[in-house]
Design a protein that fits this description.
By secondary structure, the protein is an alpha+beta fold. The protein contains 4 helices and 24 strands. β1 (about 80-85) and β2 (about 85-90) form a beta hairpin. The chain is elongated.
């Protein structure tokens, strides 16, 4: 019986009891006993009434507090924490902060190197490929920030900028990418192979300090900016600068994602830089030897480069292709133009797909992770990759690579990669001491990574 029912029963009893009790009392002693019992019941009724009032007040106060909390959550929650590979903390008014990082460990085996070549990288090698940590977030008024450093060897800043976003417009000031192409702009956490296409390294793609803007209109993404040099190379004598731009178009047709794009880059080397060099390792980064290498091209004044890109994602299947030309303008010398390009195709063995957003590839969202009793995401990829560094009297060699990869993503943000590459070289006579004009090597590479 609750307090209210108990109170009603006691009140009724007090009302009825005096009449019946007085009528039944035979002596003054019995009457006194009955009066005492009635007084006790009255005290109990008063006590119950007090408890009932307290309970009702407390219930009303709780109701008010629930309403206030719900309203506050809808209007302005002081702190909200979400988990996106790492805790993302959002505060009132537009503030937010999220830790960012990636750890990539590589293992490689280089074989079939001609016996006339003696290099330390032949056989097994390993390295910590990337060790990056930092933060990014937002600031009230549409502003944002990103500060990421690589802690391998010396501390080196990779991204360091402030941004402003207003609807489809985004402006960035600081060190960031210069819109080179699809694979270069996609994170190394999300590429199909342990290294990007050969031309992206050979032609010196890197982050630089500058001012850029991006604008989304319909399916088009327009990006452009003016840049100086990488933050580690800036000094009072380095007055090089570049103008870089990229246009992409993305659309979905019958549930198939289509991406098309092109980019152009014009760089004045300034007064301090008078030569450039293009070269590439044999697929894996832990081998320091470059079998293909132009060496220093003297008399360089500026670079003009441009590229085309395309990609299709249809369910578990994807294909992507890029081409790129790099021209060096020299003083009173012939101007060479070099070429790089690749085409790849990939297929998920599990019910997963390659992700895409705003002109770049994104990490797979595992449909059935091992944490839920699944097998994770399994993907196979094949690629043909060509790099030609021979033109206008410059003989830096040609490389044709035939590659395959197997990727296991057990859960979001964790990947294991196994790569194989057969690399065929021509026009490389003595680029490395003892190298014949034509030969080939085999490379096996493996990577374990976590990125958030």
């Amino acid at each position: 019986m609750n307090i209210k029912n108990h109170l009603i029963a006691c009140s009724a009893l007090i009302t009825i009891l005096p009449i019946n009790a007085i009528a039944a009392a035979n002596t003054s002693e019995e009457l006194a006993t009955l009066i005492e019992r009635i007084n006790k019941l009255e005290q109990e009724v008063l006590s119950l009434r007090s408890e009932l009032n307290s309970v009702e007040l407390e219930q009303k106060d709780q109701t008010k507090r629930v309403v206030v909390i719900e309203d506050a959550a809808e209007v302005d929650s002081p702190i909200a924490i979400k988990w996106k590979g790492a805790p993302e903390i959002k505060g009132a008014g537009g503030w937010s902060v999220k830790p960012r990082g990636r750890v990539l460990y590589d293992f490689a085996y280089l074989s079939s190197v001609p016996s006339t070549i003696d290099i330390p990288g032949e056989g097994f090698s390993s390295e910590a490929r990337r060790l990056r940590f930092g933060i990014e977030g937002t600031i009230p008024g549409g502003f944002g920030y990103k500060l990421i450093a690589d802690y391998l060897d010396d501390v080196s800043l990779t991204d360091a900028y402030i941004s402003y976003k207003d609807g489809p417009l985004k402006i960035i000031v600081g060190q960031h990418n210069t819109f080179q192409g699809l694979e270069e702009l996609s994170s190394s956490n999300d590429t199909s192979f342990i290294e990007r296409s050969a031309f992206t390294d050979a032609f010196g793609f890197e982050r630089r300090v500058g001012l850029s803007a991006a604008y989304n209109v319909g399916g088009f993404l327009l990006e452009g900016g003016v840049f100086t040099d990488n933050i580690d190379d800036l000094d009072d004598g380095n007055n090089s600068f570049s103008v870089d731009g990229r246009v992409t178009y993305a659309t979905v047709v019958d549930e198939t994602q289509i991406h098309l794009g092109s980019s152009v880059h014009a760089r004045d080397l300034g007064e301090e830089i008078d030569s450039v060099r293009y070269r590439k390792r044999p697929l894996v980064h832990s081998v320091d030897t470059r079998f293909i290498n132009t060496d220093q091209i003297s008399g360089a004044q500026d670079e003009l480069s441009y590229g085309l890109e395309a990609a299709v994602i249809a369910g578990r299947f994807h294909v992507a292709a890029e081409t790129y030309w790099a021209k060096v303008n020299r003083t009173e010398l012939t101007n060479p133009t070099f070429f790089g390009g690749s085409i790849e195709a990939g297929y998920f063995l599990t019910q997963d797909k390659r992700e895409y957003k705003e002109g770049v590839f994104k990490g797979v969202k595992v449909n059935n992770p091992i944490g839920n009793g699944g097998a994770g995401a399994w993907q196979i990829n094949f690629r043909f990759d060509r790099l030609d560094l021979v033109d206008a009297g410059i003989v830096g060699g040609e490389q044709d690579a035939y590659m395959a990869s197997l990727i296991w993503t057990p859960v979001d943000e964790v990947r294991f990669l196994l790569n194989y590459g057969h690399l065929s070289y021509s026009n490389v006579l003595d680029i490395v001491e003892g190298a014949p004009n034509d030969f080939s090597v085999n490379v096996i590479g493996a990577r374990t990574q976590i990125g958030f």
